[in-house]
Amino acid sequence: MGPPKSLMFIIEVIEALESYFPLSFQESWDNSGFQVLFKHDILSGILLSLDIRKETVEEAKENNCNLIISHHPLFLQALKNFDYNFYPENVLYNATKDRISIYAAHTNLDIAPLGLNNYLCKKLQLKNSFMLENLKPVFISEIEKEQTFSEFIDYVKKTLGIPILKYVSSHNKPIKKVAICSGSCADYIYKLKSYDIDVFITGDVKHHSAIFAQENGINMIDATHFYTEIWSVDILFECLKNLNVKILKSTNDRIPWDYI
Question: Which positions in this protein are listed as binding a divalent metal cation (predicted)?
Fold first, then answer.
């Protein structure tokens, strides 16, 4: 048996988290912060997740966790009606019924200096990494030793645990300079053309963004939204692990589609 867990109010946990990822960092369109709030309840446990599904709330309840901290917000726009038979209203309904608070650390975690994209640079063992101040949260980095594009694709796929990915091949030059931005950042390619990068790693690459990259000499790796952002759970855990409270990682996070 370890030491007894500390008694904390839910709001105290969030104050600790926001010391790393202030809400002031989030993009103007974002909805980071509380999605459901019972801030004066005593914390019983924390469940960390990438996404919030109905199963996530059930998992929190089964494990006596009354706070879910996710990366993705439950909704980005105000709800104009409420039908608890459908997602995401059913999640709000069940969380409220069971007094489970939900908090999202989204673009504030992406943009923070020690946030998600910095983590990806370290995981991929890139060097000389820095965030573009005029293009947050994009990071520019370098590979320790030049690789062919094929070698680098295999390395990214293996390191991030991606079962299948797509890529855009624009040139056969050795890969050295890398831009990286987790999640749905493919449209940044239009502004990255002037940074002399060899490859851009992101997710959710669209048809026209791919053509633009191919025609402008930039290779792209679509490492998927899921596999570039699932690491947010590990980041959240590292930030909160010294609070001496029960913290679990959700087992319900999964990529939302299949391949044939």
Answer: 71-72, 110, 225, 229
